[in-house]
Queue: 2 jobs
Job 1
Amino acid sequence: MRSKLLLPLVAAFCLLLTAQAYGQSYAITNARIVTVSGATIEKGAVVIRNGLIEAVGANVAPPADAQIFDAAGLTVYPGFIDALTNLGMPAAPARAGGPGGGQAAQPTGTTPTSNSNYPAGLRPEDEAVNDLRAGEAQFEANRNAGFTTVLTTGRSGIFNGRSAVIDLAGETVSAMVIKSPFAQHITFSTIGGGQYPASLLGTFAAIRQMFYDAQRQQEIEKAYAANPRGMKRPDADRSLVALYPAINREIPAVFAANREIEIIRALDLIKEFKLNGVIAGGTESWKVADRLKAQNVSVLLSLNFPKRTASSSPDADPEPLETLRFRAEAPKCAAKLAAAGVRFAFQSDNIRSLGDFFVNAGKAVESGLNKEAAIRAMTLGAAELLGVDKTLGSIEAGKIANIVVVKGDVFGKDRAVTHVFVDGKYFEQKEPPKRDANPSGASGPSASGPSVTGRYTVTIEVPGQPLAATLTFSQSGPTLTGTMVSQLGTSQIKNGRVSTDGFSFGSSVEFGGAAIDISVSGKVSGDQISGTIDSPQGAVPFSGTKNP
Amino acid sequence: MRKSLAILILTSLSIVSPMFVFAQAKNDILIKNATVMTAAKGTLENTDILVQNGKIVKIGKNIAAPAGARVIDASGKYVTPGIIDCHSHSMLDAINEGVFSVTSMTRTRDVLNPTDITIYRALAGGVTAANLLHGSANSIGGQNTTVKFKWGHPVEDYPIADAPPGIKFAMGENVKRATSFAAPGSAVRYPRTRMGVVETMRDAFLRARDYKQAWADYKAGKTKVQPRKDLELEPLVEILEGKRLVHAHGYRSDEHLNLLLLADEFGFKVATLQHGLEAYKIAPEIAKRGTGVSIFTDSWSYKLEAYDAIPYNAYILWKNGVNVSINSDSDERMRRLNLDAAKVMKYGGVPEEDAFKMITINPAKQLGIDKRTGSIEIGKDADIVIWNAHPFSVYSRVEMTMVEGEVLFDRAKDADMRRAMAAERDALEKLDVNKAPSGGGGTSPRIPSEMRVKDRDEADQADGGNR
């Protein structure tokens, strides 16, 4: 009884606190303001109150109660939007850029249990908002880089589930979410674990069958709703039900595809099932710009441009000309899409350094993309593609106060974000992090942590049949050598590296009479070791302990 | 860096861009004074062929060149129809969906990759069309795609639109998986024996029959709820209705016979027995049913179930009136099918013309595309190969290959293309994005790609390279 009485009081107090926080008003003055929706204001002010942009203009005077930021010499932009991420998702799967980047890795985290009729990877009912972790602290690095809004989806598999547009502020999921679901996400991958589909052939058959089944299910449900008498009750199959919005064109279907042929396959499916299609990745989308335009398909264009890595540059083999071209053409894609009238927004695609997002957008500008178009692709243009442009993407009175203040050229190496506002909340900028002494990162930072040298007993979590293995590491500076022993034999560690991020190495194992190349990455923390083994058959996690 | 001349040549070929050839327009072409092996009406000496709009419009002597036509002097050269490979996995980004033993819902059309360099190499060996099949891991595999090798064209141009649809069946070692490993964690798949394979097929056809009936009942108003559109069973119904060609992989004659009897039971015809190295044992039974056989000319005893293979297989089948074709089942052997055909003249003495038909009009008939290709006849597609010598000679080389009147391989231009690409490579390799990261040394050189296991699905390696 007593607590019941207290509740309204507590609620009222909370409201008061909130009102106080949102009642706070800010004014950014003497700034160059890139509104995106209208002309750039060379010197003006933006006033923020109650989470919204209250006023913007050359002659706007800061209100008396506003905290004032003098932004002379700085430029104000709408908060940047990253049009596809895994932010806020547990155990975000690694989505590699570059060749074959359309293929998502298998989940490395624990697979949540589900009573779905379908195996993990074929569950369109998976919702990003269900997995999204609450709390804004986790987004600090992204906000510091100038991002205020992202599209996020965290699932691997074929049907990745439905994504959400979130603001990078708010202590609860409900406070973060702007729009959910945004789209159904689809990747041409396999689901692994010895389950169908295990090859690209089956992937297409499985996608098609689920679309057909969903179409039929919807028809039957309609008929049953109209007249249930004498009709068998239809299955309540929520996986199929979750596909209705996509097949009814109520939400987009986003296909992860980087290579031309992957994009063509996606476009064929979009046409076959009359979907509201979107391409995510799209590194070679310029090659099919005419078709994208004709089918009104937009692109969430990856700025994680393909790079040559040590492991993908074998000395014995000249690289295929296609690969050389792929890397050379990637920065030119955006300009070609713009010229062809294809709508696009930029996405980070799990780029290693968020600063590269802007550097690479700058490369797109150097390659012929109009600078305003580049800004649009990370602000209002992205908001339009994500269906949130009424409230986000530009600096206009009445819109959500997502604002970023930048010092220097936004595409330049000297760029620095000085102020970030998300939902009208001011996030103080810490000192910009010191640049890596060795920014190329090619040889890796010198391993400053404790040596990983030792013998580890690990279990490789092959679904249904865990494999025991022993890893023997010998670390010398950043170089890692040693062996991996399992029932598949003894394999030498190749290209082994250790950095502050962990260790990585390549190897090959004999299986079924063939040598299979694997790449292994992981971390050692105390006596614990964990990581992922990636192979052409998919990725599996492993974990274990150091032998005394 | 480059280890040998062979690797140099292979890597050069691997970088030929589709872009170079696509730009060519379809001119009229007049081939003059050739020795024409027609695969229809014998060999014609000093003969001209006129190609217009991608079709063969005139065959004869002293044909006048229309204005603007490209005239090719083929004096002393041999001209043949394009070779057709009735069993190939080229262009496919995946070959086997091996989780189930019945995967009729899969379609090789979904995974065609028009950038596969084997297309250009096939053209350089005179091959212009192929039957792109699912692998042999399953009793009933996926749906095939019959393509023309239109190198440089977008993927949608490859399938022959009016080719009857087909499907892969398979029996024997690859299907029962007696010699392969189960992946860690995966269950051992049914069927595990040759009798289980036949049972799997019969079960699938019984399900297809029920499925067909369910739809018939629904359409007749006998049932209220629309049946599920079942992508696995629909192609099997098409087989029962005679609308889809069955291409059945197998080696042993007892298994072939089992399949023919199963087909009798369900009332359909098997289009081809693929491989059929023991087919000679049941040649009359095959001939009686009008089934074709598509073979390797050798590969004798290369695996246990090929133990009873003999070099006279093609001859005995031919003698019994069976339509025989010779296939490659290999990206590499595909380029030398002309020499495989020559071998059947040696073993048994199949006449030259009939041996030549085994790589041209015979596979065209097996694939149901003989109305448009497979021979040099008026009205057919101009799928034409010009050779420097008799194609059965080991000294012969393809000089030019055209598909529907479009020159897609031209030896005279190949060297220029290689030079152009070498220059492009030099320029591209100088770009920062293509430079190897510094400090990555200390690693041993990797295996050259030609010697690496192909990056396709694992099932390919487990079934003896898909053969």
Note: Chain A touches chain B through 68 residues (CB under 8 Å).
Job 2
Amino acid sequence: MTIALKLDNLRLAYDTADGMHHVVDGFSLTLEQGEIGCLLGASGCGKTTVLRAVAGFEPVRAGQILLDGQIIATAAFHVAPEHRHVGMVFQDYALFPHLTAADNIAFGLRRWSRADRQARVAAMLELVGLDSAGKSYPHELSGGQQQRIALARALAPKPKLILLDEPFSNLDVDLRERLARDVRAILKASGQTGLLVTHNRPEAYALADYVGTMADGRMLQWDRVENSGQTER
Amino acid sequence: MPSTAPFSSRASLYGETGKTWLSAAIFILLAVLLPVAVLAMLALGGSLQHWLHLVEFVLPQAFVDTVLLLVGVGIGTVFIGTGTAWLVTAYNFPGRRVLVWALLLPLAVPTYIVAFVYLDILHPLGPVQSVIRDMLGYDSPRQFRLPDLRALPGAIFVLTLVLYPYVYLTARAMFATQAANVIEAARTLGCNGRETFYRVALPMARPAIAVGACLVMFEVLNDIGASEFLGVRTLTVSVYTTWITRSDLAGAAQIAVLMLILVVGLVWLEWRGRRRQRYITMHRMRPMQAQSVGGLKGLGLTALCAVPVCLGFIAPAWYLLSETIKHFQTVGGVSAQLLASAGNTVLVAAVATPITIVCGLVIVWTARRVRETTVGNWRSGLRLAGIGYAVPGTVLAIGLLTPLSFLDTGLGIGLNALFGIDSGLLIMGSMTALVVAYTIRFLAIAIGGIDAGLARVPASLEQASRLLGENSTATLWRVHLPLLRPAIVAATLLVFVDAMKELPATLLLRPINFETLSTWLYAEAIRGTYEEGAVAALIIVVIGLLPVILLSRMGWSSER
């Protein structure tokens, strides 16, 4: 299998009044093509910062990030987010409120031909099971539907990697695990590599192939779900 | 690795397009700061003799009068603004729902118009004094007359009437949204209404009141019409006459610099007020429950709150309307000159407004990006671009005269050398100078409005757009501009109306024989000919009502 994402000895930090505060230090992981990884940990453990660094919103202070074998970020080099071909589902979904669901999905397809774009939007709506919702505006959709549109939007430009930032935290508890399994099915159906961040253990095991437990900016364990003794899938 | 290691790629975190934005923003910032720098140079360049003359003859009177005017209007507006804001928030009495927004109406009346109106209304031969004489049985102004309005107390009176809404707005916003829980707590601890006000509500609202009072004082410093009509020689009036009648630019600049020192003090006060206010607004609370007051007591409250509305808006508006009707009945129409002035007013405002909005957008968007990529210093630097609203119009105009004339000369020489054209005064001879002045002066409105709109757009929308392949500029175009449309429309309206009302900078920078509605009115009032002034004033007041309506519809969140 080829390696899709490789984080190598990563250090992430932010400036404070008295020097630099290290959020994450000496952090490494690898994720193979088509696999779904999950960073599990309490809030403040640095998991979201890792995700944002992969997306290109946080500077890398040391170490490197490789995507499909290419370096996309080091302390001295930084590929802008729009050139990384990384998709992301945000915690608040971040759907554009002035655009319909279909236009949201088409947002990243501006350089595609009209016909290709329409076909892709239709395929994505079908993939997430919302064929009839294309003309609706985000505020007309339920939380679960908004989340699916956000997933469809992130998948539409065929990114090399998809990031999911606490994607179920705004949903009802009983919806969460079912949706986690749905999302897994959708990602697997499109052969996507994914990296998920959550603080919810059942969610992590329902969705991911690899789970890494994080605490205090360090990875305590990174292993296949089958090997962790929690194979409830 | 040492934790202080420099981080080189941080500035480029969001890609390279930032440099264009940053250069544009810095250009705007320098243009805004230029007049102030020029003033300082002019003032330093002025001879010692000038200073001595100023210190001996002009400054003592002008400075004392200005400070007295500031203090008088400050006290008056704080008293009326805070009092009415508390009454309409804490008590429910007949007519309260109308008064809540009606108390804003005087905002539509510029200071030079309220002075113009009251000079006529309270004239010894005017309607009010005639009625009083009739009631008292006198038949000649020689037997009985009210004290002359044309003095410092008169100026304090009329300025307070139209400026108190600034304090009302900020105080009311504070009372309405922040105080409920705390005030209820005070009640359970045994405070009655009056004690609650003095011990809890007033101390809490003090920063908000200070902000409102500072806005009032900026307006007082800026005012030229009211002070001049009412015979108060303030610093603003001195700047104007020193330049216009004595053609003494260095002298005018020296007085202007003195005013700038006052302005810096006020800006500092305002900044402090806003900072403290932010601290308090961090806890959002539910609106407070008004206490019902019926019967005679309720009617008393109604009357109390209605007085400022009547004096500050209804009386002047009524007067202007009846004078206009009278004018149309006797003359049958308006003169071509008045129509031309109205046309000029709309034209300059219509050119200056979009430029102001675009400059504001550049500043806000750049400040937002800078905020995310480097440490906060640049951001507060860019905020300085909004400083124009604090700089009085005459001061701004004096600061602009030199650089703009210089530019004119340069352009003239250049065009002559290149194309052999005698261009004349391209900038000072056209309305370009006015457009520049309006843009600098009202940039803060554009910045404030657009920034408030942008603050409501979640950061994740921008990040989503970036990850979907759009750079920052494309993101602004495809995501933020559509979402900012209401904020931009509101800011456009506010800038347009303020540009139409502007008097002091217009007086100094307009081309020869170029009149706007406000300068037309000014000329009429100075000449003492009131024929068409009322028509011009009525047009300005009616247009001035638009932002008041907007404000009352937006609720209370808006501040300048």
Note: Residues 48-90 of chain B form the longest helix (43 residues).
